[in-house]
Prior knowledge:
With about 200 residues, this protein is mainly alpha-helical. It contains 6 helices and no strands.
Amino acid sequence: MAAVICDLIGDICRPICSGVAFGCREVSKSPFLPYLALTFALNTPGVVYALKSLESSCGDLKSWLLPNAIFCLLHMIAAYYVVSKIREPSSLPTTVNENSPLQNATTGFSLMPNGDIQGEENSFQRIKHILLYDKNMAVYILVFVIWLVWLPLGLKRRLENSSCDDITHYVDVSIACGYTFFSLVGVAFTCSLCCLKTA
């Protein structure tokens, strides 16, 4: 009887363990794990608590939580976008004629006909291009600045509405996660850059 139970437990655990091992192998391939993990871990509570606040009658705090959830989603989308753009295979030719006018001699990477400068995938040139010249990132930087104004507004509303006991905890956690994300996102992104195998 004990052997049957052990075999049954083994059969149940085997696919789970295989899945976890596969996930760990895939995650270990990404140098951007610290950045993505921090972004998703600290922005998910804002989305979850905004959804939970829909049943609340406290309009002032609810009206802060719902836009905050949109900001949190945008942080997660932007993190995924940045990482995918940095890691996507380069569209540049692997060999470039040294006499070609498209070859930039000072930087060592190509100037494409459309004016976009991109380095190879997982390179600091690619990162620089995405952070400084990508239009979607420019829009996200504006969103990030607006979010920095939104956070203290939430703190102000929380202090003024201490009577809304049903969702004050949601606002407290969302604000704490927001300030923690703001404090650590640069550090996490830098750690991810340090993990790049190619420059």
